[in-house]
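Lesson 9: reading folded outputs for more than one chain in a single document. The general rule is that every protein is listed as its sequence immediately followed by its structure tokens, and records are never interleaved. Here is the first one.
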Amino acid sequence: MDAKTRLFQVFEPSTIPGLSQTANYARAHVAEGVALFGALNDRDQAVHARMQRQELLYHCEKRFHFVLTEAALPCRRCSRDVLVAQLDRLMSLSALPNVKFGIISDDTEYIIGPWHAFWIRDRECITIETYSAELNLAQSQEIELYGKVFEALATVATYGRRTRSIITRVIDNLAPHEPETGS
């Protein structure tokens, strides 16, 4: 499905999307599934697959529009150091020419609330991951509805320098505070 998709529209209210995760962040994220389902601990294999999938970001014929809530950025699913490195990665990705990266700041008043994460693929399929399943919606009325929701969320997001400013503020809040010294 990824290979044929040309436009990915991704909304994530509580986590960093897999396509933009660092290996260490992905490892922590995969560990949640291992703990929740008592699954085999194949984290290294899962992380490797996720990292390989990220090659999609560098195919210039593909376009990506990510919208995250600010609340997703500091969500402590991993150590502080891993999270800071992850946020640094988002800064880099936001500069790619085929990536549009938006953040809905905490002080934004929503037109439509951020109920759950979803991915729109070429306005042909909606993917929603739950704790127990991946839902793939393909009926035209569902695609139209999620298209409207994505546009409403994307409209209230910030982009470019304002997005990088939000990420920098979150990084600064996560960084250990050193005592100021005066002369």
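And here is the second record, again sequence then tokens.
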Amino acid sequence: METIPFSQACENNKAPILSVLRTVFTDPGVILEIGAGTGQHAEHFARSLPHLTWQPSDQPDHHNTCRARLGRANLPNVLEPIALDVRHRPWPVGHVDGVFSANTAHIMGWQAVEALFAGVGELLGPGQSFCLYGPFNENGRFTSDSNARFDQHLRAQDAAMGIRDIDDLNVLARFSNLALADRHPMPANNQCLVWVRTGPA
């Protein structure tokens, strides 16, 4: 029997994230998920938001991780997962109406985070949204002791990783014509940040 990859973190956060996505992605359209991982988010959100078409993607070495779960779910509004390295542009993505990513910014190196925002800015049209979930610092400080410990754990694995500060992300966002429109507190000292594309396409 095939083992389906599973993430307890995804299981814990999928309902709170869904409550945000219901308010952000209200119109029919295609949503690109960057870092689909096990596919738990893709399955849950596509099943719960049938007006959306979900496009899972992940690093080339991992983009098939979600295939077993999504194949079993066999949802009509989930597309085949694609290989996407945010640092390599142009991205192999067609038209999308929004972008979602969870727990990616803190495991990417800073150059990849820069590329993430630049790529999202190029992909989205005016008024379209980018939702980014995860732990974030504010005003150069950790928002909890647990986040400080988590950051230390990340940097011990790879010095390029670490929890990102919202102010730093907003600098990248402005260069890509993205404006922070909303911040949603989430369980376990996480947040769901929503940027909206401004200006001309």
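What the second record shows: The helical segments are 8-24, 40-48, 67-73, 110-123, 145-157, 166-175.
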